């Protein structure tokens, strides 16, 4: 399972980076989103993998997933959402101001 | 009835529901792959998949009702929700497909009809509700 | 009373929903559920512009039963079509003029058509006068329209619209 | 609660088969999603994928004998619908909130 | 009721937060009211910062346990000499920037004051937090506020620069999370003091991972600090932003520098075993390179705002070069330099706007424009600030540069540092002389008439000029403070002890025994039971 | 003693007066300035007298001990000599400038700059601390920049000032380096300590670098070859400035420093081999160029260069007697050169030109000026009975003395004589070409002697030249004595200040020079032509300009290379940097650890396949943006499933909700963006990006693998244990979010609030073209709100609200919480907008949603502040059970209020963002309709 997760993180990062390096705003936003998925997944699994043991306290269970990375990822997701929303609107603003959707503001 | 027998019966019942549910779920997706045009494919998930998941949800309701104290019916909520929304989703997808003139094996309805359904040609009836201010009671 | 309890049926539904959600019928939860079932419709009342007047509740109940049974039939039918030879599928579009007029009844009819055997409501004309239906075995469109009219549209008309 | 019997063999077997079938369903939906060919096809496939995952979650709930993931299933059902509506409306109207 | 004095550590965060929130609630209120509230907030912040500074000046470390949860379990704020000084400089800068903004540039959009306050909150939080993930959160606060402030006023140039700035920083934030995640994944904690303890006791097989994370974190901080080659975002962003915004941005590169200083002295400091002094060699080389590249930018700039933006890069390079030397004298020199360069570059940005405004269509372009009616005043202020920033006596930059060179005298890097610092100073001076001579001396008779600058607009600029002089006059006490701050940084044991309250657990030891459990309990937990 | 700093301070304070005084009347600024200089001079008298007794006065005040910087002033013979020169010539220049400056010249500014310069010069020569000396040194560069560029409208003035600043300022920086090294060698920056260290400094390995750097400062300031070229261009300054800066003060600062540090630095081979040749070259080049300049001030400028070379050469020779000659020539040169500059200024002022090719026969028009100029020029030429003769004689004597040491040194007296002859020639030219040699041609105005007072300063200086020339030991003698004592830091050598030394080789050289000079002048016309063809094109300014242009060009080229305004470039750099650092971190370390791993199951594998398909699909279809978006949402869904599988229900719920809102957001945005991405990346570019992507993916994958295969131990055990007793909730994740790490959450909602504000700001007045057709060119369906959707979506709202309340209330103990509840409500409301439109929905929503942002933030903060009231830190929570009849046990926690704040912020923000974004199209369409109305 660990290998699967590592591969997933790597793949998401790779796809995110490739899209980040495109010349138009929309693919870049998609890239940012993919990259933040990678980051969130990565940050989450830093508490290691555990199946069927959510961090909801129950009287007869001793095993729990590490709750702290989950809390961190929640924060990261929320912040990431705010940032994505901002950059999406900025892309629109740039398109309106610059007349095109190239990240450098000019058609190549 | 002994506890063991109850357990067995419930288990068999739940197992059956699971198998039926999973089977229909698969059937829905299978149709998605097998059928030949979008309009045909639209039939399968709306019916089979919805029923399949509904069956699984009932299995869950039975299982938890039996396993934990009290009646567990909240799964019904999801099932009802799916049954209400699935046709709406299908309707909207079909509408989009007709708008895009997605090809159909049997041929699309006449263009004039599609134009009319797109709201072109005939003037659409204005949405009366949007204009009038809503009263408290509606 | 109307302003205080704009939608008693909705309120009841919501209370039921609450109890389903919490999986409990303790007095505290009933009280809390009641409170919410009162407050939420109060806030959302203005979204419910069309008041549904159920004239024949029993007919509606019967229709519900018919639909549920038809859903099961529909699934088996569809299953056979999917798994069986594809040649058995002779699809076609059917244009069905509507007799129901109300928002709720038109919507209900469209949904029922989709959930029941072999048919799918593909498009409702913007003036709500007709429905384009896609049928998996649509050679005999008249028969399909007749069946829909008899099985679903008429009961809907009777239960919700006929005065 | 602790005196409850363990999940039995039949149920486990059914769960295993169930997981297998739903997993295949997921992959088939994914296949349709990938091959399209039209935009509405992809919406349909995505919608089905959402419902398939509801099925997976229900199975997981039963398997873990814990209803902790019920809300997730509920939200997937809800958001699958909203997503389908938004994607479809984009195709017919462009402006989805207007 | 409690003594409010106990909460002085968190005040620099809460004051702007509450001011900002109040301004959000007063959506649509009149500009004078917004200005008054904003200004009052800053004055309150200034008072709080001063109070905090006085509290830590004698060497006390103030630890504030949020939610009464002890470190390392909860988040703590820590005020030492360095963080208090950073907060103080931020507050002073905020005052000047706000004085400038309320002369009219805040009017270009309604949200200026809100964004300004939240940016202050982010800055102060970053300076005060003792928790690595919380540092990330405050980074995000200050970044998103800075995105807004950069775009404040709108226009094509800002949109383009903003897009670059935002996307680059979003990637930076992702890297931050990768780094923090790895550190947590290996060390199992987020509190910086606790991280320091655990790094010191790191088993050899984990060294590679932690080093990778630490270096990745360095990339993030270097990006914020505009260390070459990660400075590319800065010139465009800073030159496009309105001066009322960018005046406050002058401190933002300092956040990067601060974080480098904090993390690599505390967590990866001298006691970090195989990871000790991890980034110093990088810092030294890249810092010098930054100075060179910044100077190239200064020479090549065709407008004043861009030139000043490159000056920010140079000053960042100078500070990080000093930090790269690592000795107490060098850190102290870097800090001394850092405080004044933030103020001076901010004032230059403000002056740029004043000049641009009087020159009409010529704005801040470095070409002959209309005769300036107030050339003496504007040019005089420019001269003073230019000298200060180029490191020419008798202004503050001179002492800063001398201190940095002096700190390098007995190191092998002396030749490089002296050659680069001195020659770039000359080139900077030449470029500034050219710019000043073009702007204030040279006139194009066909250029039409310039307008008279608003004298009130120049008050903050003049104030910084005076401060720059006073900074030299009182160099000795200021340096004593930075020296003490550097000493505090170089003895992280005190910090660790203060934060963990004497708890000296080595990494890997269990913390789950009942004793430590009760340590972290709030005094009133379950109070109503 | 204590008035030493006052001497320096007075001009600085006085510099503020002239701009005020000028308001009373122009002359007032001159009198005030003169008064300031006089006051400083008066203050010098008492300490000056003690210095003449051989004392060295030092006043010291700690300033910045850590740096070695103290406020320290020193008055010894050398300093006194310079102070007197600065103040006395300064007074004369002030007087002269009063009549020199034209009506339109702002006089207040002139005198202010002049006093600034005077103060800087005084500070420089009186500094006891070397860093302080350097500060004044740079101040002289800056104030001279201001003085040279005084006529700022003139391009040559601006440029001359910039060249001067670049050269002398740069030299100052080198000097700084040298001084820091010297201080490092000696251990102190106090001059006394440095001088006391004496020759021991030479042994230090840092000596040569220190010497070179210090000499760079000296040579630039004193216009030594090859830095001499700034001086002629500084002649664009008003003539009083030239008379002051370029005779007695600014340019003398360099040689002053040579003299000042003479005991510490001189006497080594390096010293001799650097200083003497530079001095000699400068002497010759200056003299040569002076002769060929047609501009009067140009001639004087090169002559100054030449004489500074002479002084430098003398110090370079390094013997005590040479030093005596050097100091003596400093004094003499100051007097005759200042008077010559003033005379040149008068000629320029009265005749309107300084071009010697136009000037001629002025003797008839201005005999008084002519006489004074003639005497001063004779002094410059080294004519006996004038002061210039004496020091030049001493110089010749030293060259002869040096020649006796080595055979090859014979060149020295020869070159000295040639330079002497050239000096005679240019002095002759100055007199003959201007005052005689025919009649003036085509002068702008008719010249005549200037007003009486303008001549007084020249007369004073010329009288000194004569007096010193005849009675050297009675005039400059005593001052020279103490000055030399100070330079040598010991007893002065035996030297005699006599007019007649008998027939010495030096006298012969003098005579030879006089004769040779006359000869050179006689054949000037062919020489001018010869010079014109050989060196006519060489122009130092053009060289500097060329250098500056090259610097500018190369920096612009480099700048364009480095500072590319390309996002892709920035990202490539950033990602590469991260990769390099990761590689460096991992280098040589094992990747895989020893922890036991979990098995892989088919469901997870299939999910991973979906994830991969979604991610790769997003990349593959990124040109078909809508399709890419669909693929992206698959990734989001699978991530949520992963969270479910890996025991993180809260995360799954949040991920799903955020995912939903993000997709709606992206769809809203996509409407206004192109639906396709053009193909514009070249194949190499794509391959580069692919490589970088694969490396990045590989790196994070390996990082993940490395961490996951290692066992660890974390602080979260404590959190599990304390969640119920400390935080009052069984959902540990939620307790961490709202309690243990509630501060993070407060920050997180602040980020959201700021994002909303920024977005709100960006959307104001946003004008975007609304596409009238879909990407296949088909007009949009006009069925805006399909009925079936509208009908069923209305049912959704109350249901979703109910679910949200449920999720919110249970969050503390079970998966859920304010954030998720907020998003559910938001999505339900967004659904209303989707199905029914903005206008319809807005009418039915009670109240605005914007205030929720501020109120939520306020509520969350206020909850945190509430704990202050009970004496606990910010965000300290409390919880407890409330026993109510019928209802039973009700658990309440203060963090629920906090969570409520979070929920409010989330609702406010999501709707503000989405609805405002949705409204763009609405507004645009309305605008379009209005426009078409207008057109009709
Ligand atoms: Na039950
Ligand atoms: Na002539």
How would you portray this structure in words?
The complex is a heterohexamer of chains A (108), B (138), C (163), D (98), E (529) and F (936). Chain A has 108 residues and is an all-alpha fold. Chain A has one domain (2-49, 65-98): Helix Hairpins (Orthogonal Bundle). Chain A has helices at 2-20, 25-45, 67-98. In chain A, helix 2 (25-45) runs antiparallel to helix 3 (67-98). Chain A is elongated and about 65 Å long. The relative contact order of chain A is 0.14. Chain E has a domain at 291-473. Chain E is built from 21 helices and two strands. A two-stranded antiparallel sheet of chain E has the order 1-2. In chain E, helix 8 (207-225) packs antiparallel against helix 11, helix 10 runs antiparallel to helix 14 (328-358) and helix 12 runs antiparallel to helix 13 (304-325). Chain E is globular. The N and C termini of chain F lie far apart (92 Å). Chain F is built from 37 helices and four strands. In chain F, strands 1-2 form a two-stranded antiparallel ribbon. A two-stranded antiparallel sheet of chain F has the order 3-4. The interface between E and F is large, with 144 and 134 residues. The site of one sodium ion has 7 residues of chain F, from helix 19. Chain E: One of its GO terms (cellular component) is plasma membrane.
Strand and helix map with partners:
The complex is a heterohexamer of chains A (108), B (138), C (163), D (98), E (529) and F (936).
Chain B: H1 3-34, H2 38-41, H3 43-67, H4 74-99, H5 111-117, H6 128-131
Helix pairs in contact in B: 1-3, 3-4
Chain C: H1 8-22, H2 27-44, H3 57-83, E1 92-97, H4 103-115, E2 119-124, E3 130-135, H5 141-161
Antiparallel strand pairs in C: 1-3, 2-3
Helix pairs in contact in C: 1-2, 3-5, 4-5
Chain E: H1 11-25, H2 31-56, E1 62-65, E2 76-79, H3 81-101, H4 112-128, H5 132-151, H6 156-187, H7 192-200, H8 207-225, H9 233-240, H10 243-249, H11 252-266, H12 280-300, H13 304-325, H14 328-358, H15 375-390, H16 396-408, H17 414-441, H18 455-473, H19 475-490, H20 492-500, H21 514-519
Antiparallel strand pairs in E: 1-2
Helix pairs in contact in E: 1-2, 1-4, 2-3, 3-4, 3-10, 3-14, 3-18, 4-5, 5-6, 6-8, 6-9, 7-20, 8-11, 9-13, 10-14, 11-13, 12-13, 12-17, 13-14, 13-16, 13-17, 14-15, 14-16, 14-18, 14-19, 15-17, 15-18
The structure holds sodium ion (NA) (2 copies).
Cα separation of the termini of chain B: 55 Å
Q: What is the number of domains of chain B?
A: 1
- Strand-residue proportion of chain B: under 5%
- Binned, the helix content of chain F reads over 70%
Main beta-sheet annotation of chain B: none
Biggest contact = E-F, 144 and 134 residues
Q: What ligand molecules are bound, each kind once?
A: sodium ion
Shape descriptor of chain F reads: elongated
Radius of gyration of chain F: 43 Å
Shape of chain B: elongated
Number of strands of chain F: 4
Structural class of chain B: mainly alpha
Quaternary structure annotation: heterohexamer
């Amino acid at each position: 399972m660990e290998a699967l997760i590592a591969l997933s993180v790597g793949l998401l990062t790779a796809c995110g980076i490739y899209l980040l390096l495109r010349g138009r705003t929309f693919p870049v936003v998609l890239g940012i989103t993919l990259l933040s998925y990678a980051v969130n997944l990565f940050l989450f699994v830093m508490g290691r993998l555990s199946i069927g043991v959510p961090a909801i306290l129950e009287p007869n269970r001793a095993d729990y997933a590490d709750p702290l990375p989950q809390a961190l990822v929640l924060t990261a997701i929320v912040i990431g959402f705010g940032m994505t929303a901002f950059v999406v609107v900025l892309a629109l603003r740039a398109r309106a101001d610059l007349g095109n959707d190239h990240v450098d503001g000019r058609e190549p | 009835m002994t506890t063991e027998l109850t357990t067995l019966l419930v288990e068999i019942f739940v197992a059956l529901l699971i198998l039926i549910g999973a089977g229909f779920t698969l059937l829905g997706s299978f149709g998605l792959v097998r059928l030949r045009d979008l309009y045909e494919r639209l039939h399968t998930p709306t019916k089979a998949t919805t029923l399949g998941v509904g069956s699984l949800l009932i299995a869950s309701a039975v299982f938890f009702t039996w396993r934990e104290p009290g009646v567990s019916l909240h799964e019904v909520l999801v099932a009802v929700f799916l049954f209400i929304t699935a046709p709406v989703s299908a309707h909207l997808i079909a509408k989009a497909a007709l708008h895009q003139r997605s090809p159909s094996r049997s041929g699309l309805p006449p263009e004039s009809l599609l134009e009319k359904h797109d709201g072109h040609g005939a003037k659409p009836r204005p949405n009366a509700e949007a204009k009038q201010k809503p009263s408290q009671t509606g | 009373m109307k302003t205080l309890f704009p939608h008693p049926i909705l309120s009841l539904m919501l209370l039921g929903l609450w109890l389903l959600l919490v999986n409990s019928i303790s007095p505290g939860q009933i009280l809390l559920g009641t409170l919410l079932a009162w407050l939420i419709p109060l806030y959302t009342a203005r979204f419910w512009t069309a008041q549904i007047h159920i004239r024949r509740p029993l007919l509606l109940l019967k229709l519900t039963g018919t639909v549920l049974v038809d859903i099961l039939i529909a699934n088996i039918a569809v299953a056979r079509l999917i798994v069986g030879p594809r040649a058995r599928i002779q699809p076609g579009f059917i244009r069905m003029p509507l007799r129901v007029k109300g928002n709720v009844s038109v919507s209900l009819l469209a949904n029922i058509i989709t959930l029941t055997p072999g048919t799918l409501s593909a498009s409702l004309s913007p003036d709500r006068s007709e429905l384009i239906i896609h049928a998996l075995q649509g050679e005999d469109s008249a028969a399909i329209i007749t069946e829909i009219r008899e099985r679903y549209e008429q009961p809907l008309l009777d239960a919700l619209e006929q005065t | 609660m602790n005196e409850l019997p363990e999940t039995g063999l039949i149920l486990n077997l059914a769960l295993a088969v169930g997981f297998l079938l739903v997993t295949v369903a997921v992959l088939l939906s994914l296949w349709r999603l990938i091959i399209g060919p039209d935009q509405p096809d992809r919406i349909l496939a995505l919608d089905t994928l959402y419902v398939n995952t509801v099925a997976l979650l229900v199975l997981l709930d039963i398997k873990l004998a814990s209803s902790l993931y019920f809300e997730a299933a509920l939200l997937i059902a809800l958001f699958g619908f909203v997503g389908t509506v938004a994607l479809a409306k984009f195709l017919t109207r462009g402006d989805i909130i207007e | 009721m409690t003594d409010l004095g106990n909460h002085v550590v968190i005040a620099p965060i809460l004051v702007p937060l509450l001011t900002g929130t109040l301004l959000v609630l007063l959506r649509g209120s009149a500009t004078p009211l917004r200005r008054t509230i904003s200004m009052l907030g800053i004055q309150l912040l200034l008072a709080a910062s001063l109070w905090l500074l006085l509290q830590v000046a004698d060497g006390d470390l103030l630890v504030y346990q949020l939610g009464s949860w002890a470190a390392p379990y909860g988040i703590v704020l820590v005020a030492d000499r360095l963080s208090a000084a950073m907060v103080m400089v931020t507050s002073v800068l905020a005052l000047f920037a706000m004085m400038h903004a309320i002369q009219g540039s805040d009017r270009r959009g309604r949200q200026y004051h809100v964004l300004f306050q939240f940016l202050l909150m982010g800055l102060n939080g970053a300076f005060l937090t003792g928790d690595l993930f919380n540092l990330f959160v405050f980074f995000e606060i200050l970044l998103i506020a800075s995105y807004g402030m950069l775009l404040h006023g709108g226009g094509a140039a800002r949109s383009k620069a903003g897009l670059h700035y935002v996307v680059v920083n979003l990637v930076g934030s992702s890297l931050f999370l990768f780094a923090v995640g790895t550190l947590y994944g290996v060390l199992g904690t987020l509190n910086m003091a606790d991280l320091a303890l655990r790094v010191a006791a790191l088993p050899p097989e984990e060294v590679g991972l932690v080093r990778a994370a630490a270096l990745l974190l360095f990339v993030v901080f270097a990006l914020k600090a505009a260390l070459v080659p990660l400075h590319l975002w800065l010139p465009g962003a800073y030159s496009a932003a309105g001066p009322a915004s960018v005046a406050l941005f002058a401190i933002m590169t300092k956040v990067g520098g601060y974080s480098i200083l904090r993390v690599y002295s505390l967590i990866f400091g001298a006691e970090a075993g195989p990871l000790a002094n991890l980034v110093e060699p990088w810092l030294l080389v890249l810092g010098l390179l930054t100075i060179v590249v910044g100077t190239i930018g200064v020479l090549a700039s065709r407008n004043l705002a861009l030139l000043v933006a490159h000056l920010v890069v140079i000053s960042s390079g100078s500070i990080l070069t000093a930090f790269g030397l690592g000795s107490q004298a060098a850190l102290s020199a870097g800090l001394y330099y850092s405080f004044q360069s933030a103020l001076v570059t901010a004032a230059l940005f403000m002056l740029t706007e004043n000049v641009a405004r009087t020159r009409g269509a010529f704005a801040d372009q470095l070409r002959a424009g209309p005769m300036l009616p107030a050339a003496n005043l504007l040019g005089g202020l420019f001269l003073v600030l230019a000298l200060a920033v180029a490191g020419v006596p008798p202004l503050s930059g001179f002492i800063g540069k001398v201190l940095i060179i002096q700190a390098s005298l007995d190191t092998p890097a002396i030749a490089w540092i002296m050659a680069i610092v001195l020659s770039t100073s000359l080139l900077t001076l030449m470029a500034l002389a050219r710019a000043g001579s073009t702007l204030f001396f040279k006139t194009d008779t066909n250029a039409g008439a310039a307008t008279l600058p608003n004298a009130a607009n120049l008050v903050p600029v003049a104030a910084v000029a005076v401060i720059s002089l006073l900074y030299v006059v009182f160099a000795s006490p200021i340096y004593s403070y930075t020296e003490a701050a550097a000493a505090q940084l170089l003895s992280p044991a005190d910090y660790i002890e203060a934060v963990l309250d004497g708890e000296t657990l080595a990494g890997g030891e269990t913390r789950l025994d009942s004793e430590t459990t009760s340590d972290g309990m709030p005094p009133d937990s379950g109070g109503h039971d | 003693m204590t008035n030493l700093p006052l001497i320096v301070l007075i001009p600085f304070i006085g510099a503020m007066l002239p701009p005020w005084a000028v308001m009373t009347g122009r002359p007032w600024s001159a009198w005030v300035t003169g008064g300031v200089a006089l006051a400083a001079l008066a203050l010098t008298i008492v300490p000056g007298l003690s210095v003449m007794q051989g004392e060295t006065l030092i006043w010291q005040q700690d300033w910045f001990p850590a740096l070695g910087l103290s406020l320290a002033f020193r008055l010894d013979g050398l300093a006194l000599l310079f102070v007197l020169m600065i103040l006395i010539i300064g007074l004369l220049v002030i007087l002269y400038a009063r009549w020199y400056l034209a009506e339109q010249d702002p006089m207040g500014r002139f005198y202010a700059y002049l006093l600034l310069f005077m103060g800087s010069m005084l500070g420089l020569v009186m500094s006891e601390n070397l860093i302080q000396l350097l500060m004044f040194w740079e101040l002289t560069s800056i104030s001279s920049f201001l003085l040279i560029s005084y006529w700022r409208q003139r391009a040559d003035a601006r440029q001359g000032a910039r060249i001067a600043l670049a050269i002398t300022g740069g030299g100052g920086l080198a000097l700084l380096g040298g001084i820091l090294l010297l201080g490092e060698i000696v251990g102190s920056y106090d001059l006394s300590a440095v001088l006391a260290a004496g020759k021991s400094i030479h042994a230090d390995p840092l000596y040569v670098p220190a010497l070179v750097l210090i000499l760079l400062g000296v040579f630039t300031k004193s216009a030594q070859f090859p830095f001499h070229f700034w001086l002629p261009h500084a002649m664009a300054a008003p003539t009083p400035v030239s008379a002051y800066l370029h005779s007695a003060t600014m340019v003398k600062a360099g040689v002053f420093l040579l003299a000042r540090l003479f005991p510490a630095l001189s006497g080594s081979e390096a010293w001799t081999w650097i200083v003497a040749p530079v001095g000699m070259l400068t002497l010759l080049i200056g003299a040569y160029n002076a002769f060929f300049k047609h501009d009067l001030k140009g001639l004087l400028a090169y002559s100054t260069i030449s004489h500074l070379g002479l002084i430098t050469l003398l110090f370079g020779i390094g013997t005590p007697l040479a030093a005596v000659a050097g100091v003596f020539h400093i004094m003499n040169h100051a007097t005759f050169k200042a008077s010559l500059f003033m005379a040149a200024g008068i000629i320029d002022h009265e005749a309107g030109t300084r071009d010697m090719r136009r000037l001629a026969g002025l003797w008839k028009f201005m005999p008084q000026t002519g006489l004074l100029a003639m005497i001063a020029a004779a002094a410059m030429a080294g004519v006996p009975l004038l002061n210039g003769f004496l020091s030049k004689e001493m110089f010749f004597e030293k060259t002869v003395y040096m020649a006796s040491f080595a055979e090859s040194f014979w060149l020295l007296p020869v070159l000295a004589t040639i330079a002497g002859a050239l000096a005679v020639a240019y002095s002759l030219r100055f007199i003959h070409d201007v005052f005689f040699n025919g009649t003036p041609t085509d002068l702008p105005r008719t010249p005549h002697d200037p007003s009486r007072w303008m001549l007084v300063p020249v007369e004073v200086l010329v009288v000194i030249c004569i007096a010193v020339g005849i009675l050297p030991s009675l005039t400059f003698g005593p001052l020279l004595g103490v000055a030399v004592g100070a330079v040598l830091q010991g007893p002065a050598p035996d030297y005699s200040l006599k007019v007649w030394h008998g027939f010495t080789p030096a006298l012969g050289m003098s005579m030879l020079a006089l004769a040779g000079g006359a000869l050179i002048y006689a054949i000037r016309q062919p020489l001018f032509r010869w010079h014109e063809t050989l060196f006519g094109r060489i122009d130092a300014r053009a060289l500097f300009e060329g250098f500056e242009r090259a610097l500018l060009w190369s920096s612009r080229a480099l700048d364009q290379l480095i500072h590319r305004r390309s996002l892709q470039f920035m990202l490539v750099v950033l990602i590469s940097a991260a990769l390099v650092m990761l590689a460096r971190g991992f280098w040589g370390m094992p990747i895989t650890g020893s922890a036991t791993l979990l098995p892989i199951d088919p469901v997870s594998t299939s999910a991973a396949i979906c994830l991969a398909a979604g991610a790769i699909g997003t990349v593959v279809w990124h040109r078909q943006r809508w399709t890419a978006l669909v693929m992206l949402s698959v990734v989001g869904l699978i991530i949520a499933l992963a969270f479910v599988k890996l025991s993180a229900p809260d995360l799954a719920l949040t991920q799903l909700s955020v995912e939903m809102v993000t997709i709606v957001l992206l769809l809203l945005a996509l409407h206004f963006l192109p639906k396709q991405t053009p193909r514009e990346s070249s194949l190499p570019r794509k391959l580069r990006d692919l490589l970088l992507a694969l490396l990045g993916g590989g790196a994070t994958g390996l990082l993940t693998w490395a961490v996951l295969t290692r066992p660890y131990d974390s602080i979260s055990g404590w959190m599990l244990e304390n969640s119920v007793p400390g935080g009052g909730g069984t959902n540990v994740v939620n307790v961490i979010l709202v309690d243990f790490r509630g501060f993070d959450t407060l920050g997180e909602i602040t980020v959201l609030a700021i994002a909303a504000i920024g977005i709100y700001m960006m959307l104001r007045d946003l004008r975007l073209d609304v596409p009238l057709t879909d990407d296949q060119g088909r007009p949009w369906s006009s069925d805006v709100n399909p009925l079936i959707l509208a009908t069923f979506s209305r049912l959704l709202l109350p249901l979703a609200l109910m679910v949200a309340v449920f999720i919110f209330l249970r969050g503390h103990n079970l998966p859920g919480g304010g954030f998720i509840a907020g998003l559910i409500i938001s999505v339900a409301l967004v659904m209303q907008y989707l199905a029914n439109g903005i206008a319809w929905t807005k009418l039915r929503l009670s109240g605005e949603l914007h205030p929720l942002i501020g109120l939520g933030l306020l509520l969350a903060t206020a909850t945190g502040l509430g704990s202050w009231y009970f004496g606990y830190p910010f965000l300290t929570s409390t919880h407890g059970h409330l026993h109510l009849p019928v209802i039973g046990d009700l658990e309440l926690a203060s963090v629920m209020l906090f969570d409520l704040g979070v929920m409010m912020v989330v609702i406010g923000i999501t709707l503000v963002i989405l609805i405002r974004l949705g409204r763009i199209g609405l507004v645009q369409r309305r605008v379009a309709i209005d426009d078409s109305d207008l057109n009709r």
